Amino acid sequence: MAVVDCANLSRAAERVAISQPALTRSIKNLEDLLGVELLERKPRGVTPTEAGLALYHHAQIVLNACQRLTREVRELERGVTGTVYVGVGSMFATHITASVAQSLAHAHPRLAMVVNDGFFEELLRHMQDGRLDLIFSNFPHVTVSADYVLEPLITVRPVVMAGRSHPLGRRKSLARSDLVEHRWVIADQPHAQDSFERYFSEEGLPAPRDVFRTNSLNLMMSLVRSGKFLSLLPAHLLGAAGTEPEIVQLPLDSSLERQAGLIYRAGAASRPAVEHVLAEFRRAARASA
Hints:
Blueprint: H1 2-6, H2 9-16, H3 20-34, E1 39-42, E2 45-48, H4 50-77, E3 82-89, H5 97-107, E4 111-118, H6 120-128, E5 134-138, E6 148-156, E7 158-163, E8 184-187, H7 190-201, E9 211-214, H8 217-225, E10 230-234, E11 247-249, E12 258-265, H9 272-288
Parallel strand pairs: 3-4, 3-5, 8-9
Antiparallel strand pairs: 1-2, 5-12, 6-12, 7-10, 7-11
Helix pairs in contact: 2-3, 5-9
């Protein structure tokens, strides 16, 4: 892994604190053991072969699992319940997760939860690498491996949002055809593009061409507030009690809906720490519904 990361044998040897000849022998022994060439030596460094890249990804999973094992054993020795690594869809970073964190801090103060937010595709890669125990997110339209449990908890219905100063922001009635020529901002993810196109194709309309894409939810909301962009986002992002006073929901119906909930590896819920976190997400989702 050090050689692939550094693309250079000398720098890799320094990283793992052995001599370069010893590292070269180690790589050669590994290639002999597996019966494949793992690295291609080039004038300016080394690059992994296809087999080397496959081994690299498996090694990532193994090392991540070893690091987590070490942490969990040490935490148990100190009497700590454990640490759970959670991936949260950007659209739910505060909507449900804040309630989960507050409840866990009160009920299980020795249980640590490490939360990273992102979009589904990125979070699933992190779970495959062993960096996450569970995900709370929209469910994808694609088939997910049978190694994972998908537990639906809520239904998410996107709505069209605009800033109050947008030309459509004060209209009492609208048709989807009124939206086509306006500027949009959407998430730069396959599932977002798919929902966006389906929203217009349901009425035989072309999808708008003037579209800005970003993976920053904060930037998306800021652009909508500016009054120059429309967006198709879950209604809960408008917040309770007018916490988004500069953003309005346009008067349009939509048949689009997606399930959202928990995703975790089959068998992962057997860890008591993970069970506590799963139970809190279920409770918070029921309360939200």
